[in-house]
TrEMBL record:
This is Uncharacterized protein. It comes from the Eukaryota.
Amino acid sequence: MSFSGRRVSILRSSAGISTEGARRASTVIQGPSANELKSPIHSEFRSHPAHRPHAGLETNRASTGVVWCTEQASKHGFIQHPEEWANLGQGAPEVDDEIEGCFLRPESIPLTSAGREYGPTAGIKEMRAAVANLYNDNYRKGMASKYTWENVCIVPGGRAGLIRIAAVLGNAYVGFFIPDYTAYNEMLSLFKNFVAIPSPLSGEDGYHIHADKVAEELARGTSVILTSNPRNPTGHSLSIEELARIQDICRDRATLIFDEFYAGYNYNHDCDGTTISAASNVIDVNDDDVLLIDGMTKRFRLPGWRVAWIVGPKDFINALGSCGSYLDGGTNVPFQEAAVSMLEPAKVQEEMKSLQTHFKIKRDYCLTRLHEIGFNRGDQDIPDSTFYIWLDLTTLDPPLPPNSGLDISNGLSFFDALLKEKAIVVPGIFFDLNPAKRRDLFDSPCHHFVRISYGPKMEVLKMGMDAIERVVKKARGEVGMYDHAISDEPTEGMSPKVKRHSAKGMGERHR
């Protein structure tokens, strides 16, 4: 449109000539389905500003995943009193010094002269060398090619690391597998120098990544593969043999990016501290196009430090260090200095033993409770890694009665029902591809799942499992519909009998 054309359009608007009809016709393909219109929580999800056009703002980045879940919980008082809630949505481990056998975290950080200066955007040499030494000890004993400090880039958190990697990728098809970490889709859409291609996995084998699936991606022109291992949200990991097959297929054909943030949470080896990494199958650390992302966040239980790393070939590391100067400015130097001593291999081995033993107990508790409530595992076996349970809501047995007044068969509705019991989980659609723009949310293969985190302390997990049990009992008609942990339900129009029942339930719960 010419400048004069734009001026005419603006003048028409100021004169009261509506262009709303034209705008609506050009932006809306189809309205919500009947299923969505019947569900208040689905309608609320659709009505969020993140799902509507707004001048000057890319609104679909305004609220996704855990952020949206937290926003909804805040409407019920979560922000004001988080201690009263069972937050099983946040992907974070417990951080206190209460796990038997784990080393004590520092309560204060000394500030050296170097710590007051700008740090190198690739990280301080001492930290980079400590990471390289840990990987050589854990994964490369007896191998000729070893990592050095030049193979490590320190980054301010895992997401910052992923963004740096995305910034240095050339023109390529980038393949990733769903369901997977929610930030991948948003992060990969920021850059226009490559095309991100999602590939759905099958629920029939627990959403497993098979080597032949990777081969299919390469056959259609994919030259970069990004995946989490162990996998978020399903809680499974690739074995070292499976990793080796995938790396052999991709060698000299594709760049592999492994998000290994949950490598410490491995329950396959009797909790002996063993961790699995693709570093074990790298032949030459500078020739194999394999990038590994990990950090202090998950397995060292220090998410607030924002200290992570990328391990890979020197050429990649040099580029990643350089782009930090214009993307994030680098990682906090004092926390890097404090982290160096934590990476001593023998110390890490004992830490991983304690971590795995403790979290396996919590995993088994949650799985037992969910089974007692009526949930069977469905297509997926017991999760062997991470601290997540990918719960299939359709496995509830016996099924809900046909006249149930509460639908908990899909992730959004289940999440909404749990909010009234002061508990948070993450609906499965956030691990699908861009669910906000789907024509019908009910079409998503992830829609009947929720992700449950057993990262929090045991007492929080007990609160959360109790809340899930109450929701299921309510759906079965065993508990009154307004017998909630939160007393924000309407009383106008309720019969005296229902009001008394609701008050009685609240009183018993708060004794």
